[in-house]
Amino acid sequence: MLVNLADWCFRHRRVVVITWLGALVASFLLAGALGGEFRQDYLQPGSESRAAAKALEKTFPQRSGDTVQVVLHAEQGVTSSQVRDRAEALFAEVARHDDVVGVASPFAPGGAAQISDDGTTAYADVALVTTVNEYTPARAAVLVDPILEAADDGLQVEVGGPVAALSQTAPVGSEVVGLVAAAIILLFTFGSAVAMGLPLVTALFGLGVAMALGEVLRRVVDVPDWAPATAAMVGVGVGIDYALLIVTRYRTSLAAGQDPQRATSTAIATAGRAVLFAGTTVIVSMLGILLMGQPAMNGFAFTVVLAVLVTVAASLTLLPAMLGFTGHRIERLHVPFVSKHVRPYDASQWFRWSRFIQRRPWLPAIGGLAVLLALTAPFLGIRFGFPDAANDAPTSTTRQAYDLLAEGFGPGFSAPMVLTVQGAPGDLHVAADRLGASLGQVDGVAHVAPAIVNETGDTAVLTVTSTTSPQDAATEELVDLLRDDAIPTATADTGLTVHVGGMIAANVDSTRGTADRLPYFFGGVLLMSFLLLMMVFRSVLVPLKAVLMNLLATGAAFGVLALATGGGPLGDLVGIPEATPVPIQLPIGIFAILFGLSMDYEVFLLSRIKEEYDRTGDNALAVADGLTKSARVITASAAVMVTVFFSFALGESVLTKMFGLGLGVAVLIDATLVRMVLVPATMELLGDRNWWLPTWLDRLLPHIDAEGRDVTDDQSSTPDQGLAPVSVTVGSGAHS
Fold first, then answer.
1. Exposed, middle or buried: residue 239 (CB in 10 Å: 0-12, 13-18, 19+)?
2. Tens digits of residue pLDDT in 239-263
3. Contact of 476 with 508, CB cutoff 8 Å
4. Does 348-381+539-692 match 1-34+191-341 at the fold level?
5. Contact call for residues 126 and 92 (beta carbons, < 8 A)
6. Radius of gyration (Cα) for the chain, nearest Å?
7. For the whole prediction, is pTM greater than 0.85?
8. Fold of 348-381+539-692
9. Sign of torsion, CA 172 173 177 183?
């Protein structure tokens, strides 16, 4: 199938390129006409925080939207007539905005609690008609920017809340840095500007179509605002990586004397087959996220799957068409000081390295394992949670608002808990205030605002502020204390139904709910990887060892991530200067992506080892030759991946930094310490036992040829005819 596809795309290259150009234009037109908005529902299904949100939405719709905090600070005091007049004019202007339900002013009756004890700081709560999920950065800026413009030398005005954070979201531009760095690596890998350009063009076409279609996807699936940046990171990385493998094989076939058409068919039939296998594995791994039952994570998974799917399609169709245009001209625009000779591998360098590892395999095996375990150790102390305004850039308005509130009122005022109190109409207001007074005596509670009752009198809202910051572990303990002890005690025999909600409670529920389902996710991905590798390599120990080493490499990457987010020199280096909690969804995403990507390197290396073992029956020689034939391409491919991923760590978003750093470190460890040290060492130690597979199991397992078959040049094909039946040899090594 792949041979026929490559041959057709080569012969009809103009049609293929025009079709991809049309698809790019059409996808952007669809995005403009049918594009949806970001929606990020992190509420854990069945949780108390979701119940609180549903109660507000149903019985108290005017309180179900998000809240923006307008924070004022004046050294001469916010109660002076000059400051007060300006503030009230500002609040009146804000209240007229279409998205605003009402403004709770600190200067209104009962608003004295919204003014700090020293009189220099005050805040107003601006209730919105909807949640941040319905906002775009542009719509949020229309609300927030006029508020910020009211500041001057005598009055500092800042805005806090999720909508304010969205308003200062900048377009991700770090992918440009990654593309430039990847271009430099490809230039020195291929030695030709033409060869370098093919993977970049393929990746950009795939990324453009995928990102545009991703906007249409948002119309039918809840997609968080950070998903496109992560999908772009993965799409660029795998797009360049897959095209690199195909172009490398194409140049090798040309150097062996094949004509461009047959070289294209050979490249797609071998490296293209590996690309199809690797891309499918990434997709299946990402779909494993659906086992988590998180709506926002589902949208993230679908966005990444779309990017990988389009990228694989571009690699298998657009790239063969472009190879048809370049032909032998792929070596044009040569880079000085880089050899023009196409060498699939450097026999002297990598063969010596393999023999060095195999000479005393216990030493590198134990040493490599010790390094992985040492890097993994910090992961044991990682703190899961959600970054908030305290982790924003010091110059951002959300960070300024957080600091002013923490200094004037206490660290808990930036994210209070929202309690819904439901009961019989009539005396609910009195009962809710009595409950608030009782909760105000609980250790860890700084303030409980007076109850607000809806028009029908059956639902009241209590706002509870903690004495500790949203990220503090004591705040999480306070949520448990309220739910398990304080509220049940205070509401005994009252008939009241109370749910603790708000951002802090939602984060606690989401983290715990996700953690409860982790065994299903990790178990599913690990089992799938094991079965696929067992079918490919007809072995029990090889896939078992591969899964364990991938798990250790992932743990090591998480350990480095824990170091970076714990504060210190590494955090300063990547722009995370303060201790920052890691959303539990982030390691899940990294794990799924990495296991899909590592399968590519696993197949590329082990298939060559298996090929040599089947040919010679000598395990030691097979390991050395397999590493020699695959090391150069794995190194170049990993260098591109690591560069692209690390470039995203330069972005402004803390989440994007975490994803870029985690994926970059994971690929770096996987392609170096695992593939170049642990794999040859452990395979040398196991010897012929590497390829043991019970006969009964061999009969049951289907055969998967992930590397395809090499199209030889002993049959001819013409531009007007498809490829005739050809003789084949197994494998896609340097020599067929």
1. buried
2. 888 888 888 888 888 888 888 899 8
3. yes
4. yes
5. no
6. 30
7. no
8. Multidrug efflux transporter AcrB transmembrane fold (1.20.1640)
9. positive
